[in-house]
Amino acid sequence: MKKEENKYIVPAIILAVIIGGSFMMVQFSKQKSIEKQVNIKIEAEKELQEQEILAEENRLLGLAMCYDEAEEAWWEYIKNNGDEVADKEDFWEWNKHTGNEADKIKDRKIKQCNVMYK
What we know:
Radius of gyration: 38 Å
Strand order of the largest sheet: 1-2
Helix content: over 70%
Number of strands: 2
Order of helices and strands: HEEH
């Protein structure tokens, strides 16, 4: 009877090793999958953060360019409606009304900039 009992022990041990090995491989594979998912999530968050930074930089650049255009519009109004000072290049004189109108144009453009880029 003892010999008959022993013939089941070896296959049972082999089966236990196979099942245990399979379980370990599944756990190892599962851990690798979790690590991969975490890395994908980290990379996605990093990419999103980089996109947000780039979008903010573009917004600020657009706002600065728009403000420059508002300043240029002010100068264009002054040049078109003021008087260039004789013998002085790029020197202009203007009356109060011209200055006020130029300021209004610039203020309108700045308000437009703030709506578009803020």
